[in-house]
Amino acid sequence: MPVSQVVFLAVGALALGAAVRVVMSHRVFHAALWLIGSFFGVAALYMLLESPFMAGIQLFLYIGGVAVLTVIAIMVTKGGMRPDRRSTNDPWSSAVVAVALFAVMVWMIIQLPLPAEPASQVHGESLHLLGAALVDPEGYLLPFEVVSVMLLIVLIGSLYLGRER
Amino acid sequence: MIHPYALVGLFLLVALVFGIAPILLAWIVSPKKLNPRKTQVYESGNPTFGETWIEFKPQYYLYGLAFVAFDVEAAFLFPWALAHNQLPLYAVLEAVVFLALLGLGLLYVWRKGWLEWM
Amino acid sequence: MDVVPGGSTPIPAFLLRLLGAFAMALVPLVLILFLIWESRKVIGRMQDRLGPTNAGTYAGPFALFQTFADGIKILTKELIIPDGADRPVFIAAPILVVTVAIAVWAVIPLGPAGLQVVDLDVGAFYVVAMSSLAPFSMIMAGWSSRNKYAEVGAFRAVSQIVSYEIPQVLALLAPVLLTGSLSLQNIIQAQSVPYIVAVPLAALIYFLASAAEVGRLPFELAEADSEIVAGFFTEYSGMMFGAFYLAEFINNLTAAVVFAILFLGGWRGPWVDQVPMLGAVWLLLKAFLVFNVLLLFWAAMPRLRIDQVLGFNWKFLVPLGMVVLLAVALVDKLLPLVGLTDPWPRSLGLLLANMVLGLGVVGVLSWMGRRAQRRIVRREVAP
């Protein structure tokens, strides 16, 4: 088995393990920390897919932004450190549903035709292409600007909701 | 030749080793004479009373939200900055629009007084 | 991805790389031993006192080995974990903080070729991504300590660090934009004229934001000795405290080194072509200079309040960062139209734009100051 395969399996196992711990932790704070672990796993998977930029985005935006925000939110609520009761009375049914959903997803993905050859081999240049595409009127310019509008809504909306009354 | 990205992973493991090593060393070398007074939570010499996990101001969370919005903004600027040399002039103007939208939002929020701390 | 393109894993090459990684990870640690001593001496002098000396037990000429002595003392202190603290998280925090501090050094180029663990084509972004992991060890430390002071310190530190990442990234994008690459080697090699000449405003913003990120005074409220005891690491003793202290110094050094790479030309200097190792010397000298300027901040400035810190960021640095980045991009596009494409004219053109912008900012600020002054006077005059 080539080394990359071993690494992939190890990273995947770690990411999945962390994800399982997210759901199974008794304390919300620990769940948040395990979530960060699974984000790390995803970032490593991006590296395996030869996209260091996306891996960096995982670290920068997800861990550095979303996870920090989530943890701050947990810390605001007083009960963050108390062990939580199980949120469901019947964990086995939940497990069955989860496995069934997963099986359906796997079946669907297997139906997809795999590309005959790998995507283009560009490494460092791919980011330049992305940058050019983002501002190209025939490319992704509109989504680019719409993202800004969306962020505007996020900023104003969230600060409006949280304003001093 | 080892793939560069694998090297990063390797280095991270090395960094982890360097992180664990001092703690491990200290744990081996240090004395372990615990008594209840040592393990009390610190409160300037007085015994603590009441719940020690406090609730805090929502302003912390709001600044975090503002940060996330600008974080995503910055992430989008990375590819733009990289391709800058190869792009025509209007690319800059588009970026101006991009930043100006959020910048004006910041200005609005500022003037409305929602950025104040307490 | 092929971990080893070609198939087989040549063991000797792997060991060589491992050794290289260890060596690189040791660089900040070794430098810190010297820098801690140097900091204490220099700050002492700045505050009109002597710093560590041989007043008691001998500790080397000029007390050079003071750091060793302190290190040994910290190592042998008991590791106390407070009652009710969240044990795994409590112990993981100091480990994490040191790991993240060292992790950035994977992409630091000490010289023109080969004196670097990996020259990632997204090197600058890697640096940014790694520094965005910093808040976590603080949250973990503050939260798991089960101590009001620690929690307050953690919240304040996190909101400060997270806020100042924005202008830091915006300012970092200026040299990236001028170079057209995220690779740190490329950024250095493009600096036939150091970027501090071309974009001094961006350099200033990056410097201030970095000072806030590493927790240097005047942005020191995370630690705030004498205010909230020791902030988020109040409950830590022995080497666990030592880890936070170590990580803070490493972060300071890293910030200085990255600034030197981005704006001062990195390992560039005379005779580097003949002797590549000299590159490391130049880089470290420049970083040392920046480090000492940060020390000057520490010695000379008072601590800002959290609302002042955040206000400074969101109402000044962030808007300024956006404007500077856009101005640099615009001017850089316009210069070739006027025919200035060589490094020196280009840099001077950008410098001019920066200075105009700087004057504009100063003008706006003084106008605002005068307006506030007038308002105060009016209030005093009104019956």
Question: Please, could you describe this protein's structure?
Answer:
The complex is a heterotrimer of chains A (165), B (118) and C (383). Chain A has 165 residues and is mostly helical. Chain A is 73% helix and 0% strand. Chain A starts with a helix and ends with a helix. The mean pLDDT of chain A is 82. Chain B is an all-alpha fold. Chain B has helices at 4-29, 59-83, 90-111. In chain B, α2 packs antiparallel against α3. The longest helix of chain B is centred in the first third of the chain and has 26 residues, at 4-29. With 383 residues, chain C is mainly α. In chain C, α1 packs across α10 (238-263) and α6 (148-179) runs antiparallel to α9 (200-214). Chains in contact: A-B, A-C, B-C. Chains B and C meet through α1, α2 and α3 of B and α1, α3, α6, α10 and α12 of C.
Number of helical regions of chain B: 3
Quaternary state of the chains: heterotrimer
Mean pLDDT over the full residue set of chain A: 82
Q: What is the helix fraction of residues of chain A, given as a range?
A: over 70%
Any low-confidence stretches of chain B, pLDDT <50, length ≥5?
49-53
Structural class of chain B: mainly alpha
How many individual β-strands of chain B?
Answer: 0
User: Outline of chain B, from the CA principal axes?
Assistant: flat
Average pLDDT confidence of chain B is 78
Count of extended strands of chain A: 0
How large a portion of the residues of chain B is in β-strands, by DSSP E? Answer: under 5%
Radius of gyration of chain B (Å): 25 Å
Largest sheet of chain B: none
Radius of gyration of chain A: 20 Å
Which ranges of chain A are low-confidence, i.e. pLDDT below 50, for 5 or more consecutive residues?
Answer: none
Query: What structural category do the secondary elements of chain A indicate?
Result: mainly alpha
Sequence of secondary-structure elements of chain A? HHHHHH
Report, as a whole number of angstroms, the end-to-end distance of chain B: 57 Å
Number of helices of chain A: 6
